[in-house]
C-alpha cells in the first residue's frame, strides 16, 4: 500500500476537471421541480447523443439489442424485460427531500434496516400518486417508491407504474404489474418475465416505440465527468493529506444534479471528520450514479469487499403472488443466489495462453 498513489489519482482526476471541456449534463426543458429536472438531466446524459458530459463513449445507431430487453413483456410492443435490478440497488438511492439514504443495512432474513430520519416508508400504499414521468394519470404506488431522487425515476421502472412512453397512460394501457396474472405476468415456465419486479430504464429514451419497430439509438458511456468527480472525491478522502471539503464539493455536485437540495455534510456531519464515514457515502454514490455502467464489478474487487457485497441471496419482489399488494413482499426464492469465492478476485488465464507462456502459472484457485 502506498498512500501517495491517492495523490496521483487526485491530480489525474483534477487535471480532467480543470480542462473545463466537460460539464454535468443539464436538461434544456423548462422544469422547476428539482427531482423531475434531475430525472430528465440524468436520462438525457445517455439518450442525448454526444452531450457535454461524455468523455469516452460509443454510439450505436440501432438500440434494439438493449431496448428489446428493457420493455416489459406483453405490455407495449416487443419486450423481454431482461435487464432487471435487484432490491439492493433499488434500496440504495437516496431520498430527495432529506438527502439521506433510506436503508442502512439488512437483517439476517433480508429485511431492510430503515433510517427513520430519511422519510422512507417501507410498507403500505398511496392512492393518487403521480410519477415524474407521467403527471397526467395517478397510480396506486407502494410507499417505498415515493420521494426518491431523479436518478431513481430515470433508472428504476417499478411494479405498478405506467410504461415510460408518452402513450403509456392511454386508455388501452394499464399499469404494468409483474405478479402472477398481472399485465406483465410472472411466467416461470417460459422464462419470459421480469425477474425482480423492476426494470432498468436508465439508458432508454421514452420515445422509443417498439410497437412501431422504432428502436432508437444508444450511447454507451465508457467514461463521463460524473465518474471523474467520484474518482476525485474518493482520492481526496483517501490521500494522506485528506481534503474532505474538496471531496464533498464534487460529491454534492452529483447529488444536486439528481435533485437533492441537502448537502451531504449537512445530513451526515460526521463525514467532515471521519474518513470511514465519507468513504461509505462515496461508495454509495458510485453504486447509484454509475449503476449498470460496468464499474461495480471492479469497484467491489478494488475495495476488497466483494466477499460481503457479491455473495448470498438476491432479493426481489414476490412475483408468485396473485394480486398487486401481495407482490410487494420481498423474496429471494425467484432469483438464484450469487456466489463469490476468493479465486474470483482474479480471472483465470486461458489454457492456450499458459501453453505459450511456460513460466506462468494459473491464478490461484483456478
List the helices and strands and how they pair.
Blueprint lengths: L3 H14 L16 H14 L6 E7 L3 H4 L19 H6 L10 E4 L5 E3 L10 E7 L2 E9 L7 H6 E3 L39 E3 L17 E7 H14 L5 H14 L6 H4 L7 H15 L6 H7 L3 H4 L6 E2 L12 E2 L19 H6 L10
Antiparallel strand pairs: 1-8, 2-3, 4-5, 6-7, 9-10
Q: What this model shows, in words?
A:
With 366 residues, the protein is an alpha+beta fold. It is built from 12 helices and 10 strands. The strands form 5 sheets. It has a two-stranded antiparallel sheet. Strand 2 and strand 3 form a beta hairpin. Helix 1 runs antiparallel to helix 6 and helix 7 packs parallel to helix 9. The chain is globular, with a radius of gyration of 21 Å. It starts with a helix and ends in a 10-residue tail after the last helix. The model has no long low-confidence stretch (mean pLDDT 95).
List keywords for this structure.
single chain
Outline of the structure:
Helix content is 30%, strand content 13%. The chain has 366 residues and is α+β, with helices and mostly antiparallel strands.
- Which runs of at least 5 residues are low in confidence (pLDDT < 50)? none
Main β-sheet, spatial strand arrangement: 1-8
Give helix % range: 25-40%
What order do the helices and strands follow?
Answer: HHEHHEEEEHEEEHHHHHHEEH
Q: Could you describe the largest sheet, including whether it forms a barrel?
A: 2 strands, antiparallel
Please state the overall shape, judged from the principal axes of the Cα atoms.
Answer: globular
Strand content: 5-15%
Mean pLDDT: 95
Amino acid at each position: 500500500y502506498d498512500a501517495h498513489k491517492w495523490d496521483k489519482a487526485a491530480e489525474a482526476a483534477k487535471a480532467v476537471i480543470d480542462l473545463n471541456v466537460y460539464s454535468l449534463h443539464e436538461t434544456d426543458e423548462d422544469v422547476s421541480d428539482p427531482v423531475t429536472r434531475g430525472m430528465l438531466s440524468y436520462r438525457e446524459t445517455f439518450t442525448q447523443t454526444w452531450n457535454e458530459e461524455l468523455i469516452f463513449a460509443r454510439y450505436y445507431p440501432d438500440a434494439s439489442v438493449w431496448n428489446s430487453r428493457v420493455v416489459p413483456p406483453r405490455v407495449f410492443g416487443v419486450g423481454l424485460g431482461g435487464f432487471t435490478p435487484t432490491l439492493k440497488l433499488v434500496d440504495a438511492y437516496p431520498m430527495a427531500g432529506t438527502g439521506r439514504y433510506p436503508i442502512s443495512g439488512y437483517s439476517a432474513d433480508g429485511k431492510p434496516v430503515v433510517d427513520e430520519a430519511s422519510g422512507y416508508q417501507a410498507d403500505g400504499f398511496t392512492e393518487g400518486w403521480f410519477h415524474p414521468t407521467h403527471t397526467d394519470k395517478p397510480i396506486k404506488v407502494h410507499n417505498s417508491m415515493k420521494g426518491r431522487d431523479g436518478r431513481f425515476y430515470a433508472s428504476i421502472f417499478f411494479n405498478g407504474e405506467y410504461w415510460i412512453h408518452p402513450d403509456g397512460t392511454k386508455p388501452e394501457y394499464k399499469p404494468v404489474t409483474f405478479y402472477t396474472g398481472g399485465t406483465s405476468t410472472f411466467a416461470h415456465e417460459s422464462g419470459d418475465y421480469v425477474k425482480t419486479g423492476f426494470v432498468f430504464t436508465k439508458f432508454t429514451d421514452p420515445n422509443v416505440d417498439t410497437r412501431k419497430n422504432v428502436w432508437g439509438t444508444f450511447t454507451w458511456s465508457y467514461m463521463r465527468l460524473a465518474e471523474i468527480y467520484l474518482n476525485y472525491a474518493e482520492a481526496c478522502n483517501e490521500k494522506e493529506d485528506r481534503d474532505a471539503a474538496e471531496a464533498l464539493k464534487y460529491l454534492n455536485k452529483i447529488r444536486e444534479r439528481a435533485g437533492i437540495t441537502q448537502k451531504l455534510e449537512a445530513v451526515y456531519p460526521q463525514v467532515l471528520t471521519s474518513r470511514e464515514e465519507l468513504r461509505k457515502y462515496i461508495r454509495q454514490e458510485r453504486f447509484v450514479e454509475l449503476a449498470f455502467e460496468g464499474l461495480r464489478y471492479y469497484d467491489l474487487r478494488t475495495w476488497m469487499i466483494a466477499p460481503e457485497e457479491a455473495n448470498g441471496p438476491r432479493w426481489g419482489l414476490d412475483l408468485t403472488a396473485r394480486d398487486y399488494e401481495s407482490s410487494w413482499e420481498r423474496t429471494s426464492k425467484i432469483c438464484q443466489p450469487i456466489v463469490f469465492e476468493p479465486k474470483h478476485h482474479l480471472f483465470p488465464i486461458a489454457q492456450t495462453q499458459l501453453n505459450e507462456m511456460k513460466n506462468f502459472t494459473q491464478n490461484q484457485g483456478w
